[in-house]
Write a structure and sequence with these properties.
Chain lengths: ~280, ~280
């Protein structure tokens, strides 16, 4: 599962500069791209999100074509893989937080083996716990898939039971936000709701696809401020992730539930898109 | 001002693995150590804080001697320098936030030129602004000098006027916390107070030294919950930083003040320790 191949700024290498601002400050962003059959899925969405993130962090925005090229260069047609693509503010020219004028962003791409398939998880659902850690709130970073991921690392360290697939996280003011590596959707009064990403959390690609596709199968979907009681009272709960698609929650911290009809309808709607 | 020399895990190199968890997640900690005359100042305090940080993040804690060795190996007796020392959870063995069992931490050390001396700033004081960005609050990360520093990068991007030395930051719930690269002390009713580091912020080495040394010059000092009105009403305001020592604030977002008697008494007390 470790990286099989890597490129930095278009050159095959497994090393980066010790002065990388990505290393010193987490000063960058990333995407994790599923590539079934060796073809990157939702590549335009991933590239667009990465570029939007650069604009928000005021990192010089790489051309979309340059980013897509880094992904394609690591792929072999027909061979499924996962590509992680990082963009950082670049190699530091000086000590300290201030960015140098004219700093060139770094493009770092890594290829990993395709994850072990887990069709049962999509069909039967997964076990989920509630994290103890609460996410800090910062609107300037909210929604971004940036490289400051210590909170996710610590939340993931809270459990070692391999039967538990994910933990759901709340923010410091008590809002439901997401999993450590997934977004969460609830069905409430027959409608689909997912937490707003305006204080913290990552606005995932699969989350976006679900919000876009829901109307096509007759489901009203919206982003809301949600709390523990919304989670507890939900008729259905599912997780989204760019690699694993839609996974129903069958065990929510001990509360058992079956995959619900809206969850299954959305899975059916997305099946042609997600087919690997 | 860029790094002059670097070592990774005891080997002279300017490269790190593209799989560094420090790069992917900011999963580590750092120290910035002043080395006047080529001798690291407060080395034991820096090493102790780094090891405490590893324990809090459950990173395998490197031996103190191994950390001190990385610093000394970059120094030449008599030649002043700044050494930055990072410890990360190591090189990832797999994709994802979960740490591998038996992961070995990385030790990354860099030497930089000594900063341009600015004795006038210590004597006459510095100009300081108030940051717009508010720091997220997470008690699990509070006080640590960890590698998730995007908030500091963005706060430092808020101004480009070289006459402004620092910005003071508040947290999402409105607490006064620190500068982007310094701690802050206020004099209130003749006593010294500094923000508690229990929700966010870095508990700096110079902050600790000031808290320790204050009683020796007859000053009562404590850590408190402080807000904007405490800052505005303070009789004296100064900043601390391991490289620059104590700097009075002479211009606090347009409010002019002179270096105060307690600030100067503490500068006098610390002068023998900080002499470079």
């Amino acid at each position: 599962m470790s990286a099989e191949d890597a490129r930095v700024d278009g050159i095959a290498t497994d090393r980066v500069s010790v002065l990388e601002r990505g290393l010193h400050y987490g000063d960058g962003l990333f995407e994790t791209i599923a590539c079934p059959h060796g073809v990157p899925r939702f590549l335009e969405l991933h590239v667009a999100r990465l570029r939007e993130g650069c604009e928000r962090l005021r990192i010089e925005t790489p051309a979309a074509a340059a980013l897509a090229r880094e992904v394609h260069a690591l792929l072999t047609p027909g061979v499924r893989a996962v590509v992680k693509l990082l963009v950082t503010r670049g190699v530091a020219q000086q000590r300290g937080y201030a960015a140098s004028a004219g700093a060139r962003p770094s493009r770092i791409a890594l290829r990993y083996a395709w994850p072990v398939p887990a069709a049962a998880a999509a069909r039967e659902g997964v076990r989920v716990r509630l994290a103890t850690l609460r996410l800090g709130e910062n609107p300037l970073l909210a929604g971004l898939k940036h490289l400051n991921r210590l909170e996710q690392v610590l939340a993931r360290e809270e459990w070692h039971d391999p039967d538990i697939a994910e933990a759901l996280l709340f923010s410091s003011s008590g809002r439901l936000i997401s999993g450590t590596m997934s977004n969460v959707f609830l069905v409430r009064d027959g409608r689909l709701v997912t937490p707003r990403m305006d204080l913290c959390g990552v606005a995932g690609i699969m989350r976006r696809v679900v919000l876009q596709e829901a109307p096509a199968c007759g489901i009203i979907a919206s982003e809301e401020v949600l709390r523990l009681e919304d989670l507890q009272g939900a008729q259905e709960v599912f997780l989204t992730n760019a690699l694993t698609g839609i996974r129903p929650v069958r065990d929510l911290a001990g509360m058992m539930r079956s995959p619900g009809p809206l969850t299954q309808r959305l899975q059916g709607q997305l099946a042609p898109i997600l087919h690997d």
